[in-house]
Amino acid sequence: MTHATEWGRKAEDLYATAYARKYREHDDELRDVKAYRAFCDWLENVCGRFDRRIDALDLGCGTGRYFAALRNVEALVGIDASAAMLDEAAHPVDASRITASSVRLVHGDVLTYDLAPASFDLVYSVGVLAEHTPFDDRVVANVCRWLRPGGRFAFTTVHPDSSSIPNTAGRVVGRALLPWTTGSIRRWLRSRLMAGGQYADEAWIAQCLGQPLTVESLDRLESEAHLHCLCVARKSGQGGQ
What we know:
Elements: H1 6-14, H2 17-27, H3 34-47, E1 54-59, E2 73-80, H4 83-89, E3 102-107, E4 120-125, H5 137-146, E5 147-158, H6 169-177, H7 183-193, H8 202-209, E6 213-222, E7 227-235
Parallel strand pairs: 1-2, 1-4, 2-3, 4-5
Antiparallel strand pairs: 5-7, 6-7
Helix pairs in contact: 2-4
């Protein structure tokens, strides 16, 4: 993998062959897990917001865990920093239920890989951004470039109030001080609390999205692992319905 960031290299090292195999085996056990079904239903709902067939990009697709949740997709591209995970994605869970006309898998870092501009109607990412890869301006800039006018960006983040995040003394003090700060000090403190985008709450998401992406829906979901934000943002322009 060329032009990999620190985050891409970490992902490739972590999700090596043995781990990827176990991860894929776990996919087969998820069908009745409430949070997994909620993520699948959410993605299906997002696809239903389009009144035509669409082209979709899965950022950090892993083993293709959510391919079967998509509806009305013509071309699906899955990108991941781990070649071993992509090997498993060639045989994803519920493969017989995948309705996309074509699926292409790409080995690359979502922060640096160069995909053609305006190639997708939907870019989505579940369990990757603000978890394994920072959610920041780089991600938003890439997605804006890849989306067609009117396209949607659907993604999850780990909320900084998640019980999975150690509640250190520094975090407690930082949260208490935040309402009393302004300007550059407030921005610095918020960035510290979000660990530079390794976590993302509603305010951080809105700050990073800016324009031309407008939040269409923003909800929370508690899984067995984290408290998540589920966001759908739409790119300005025609063609997204």
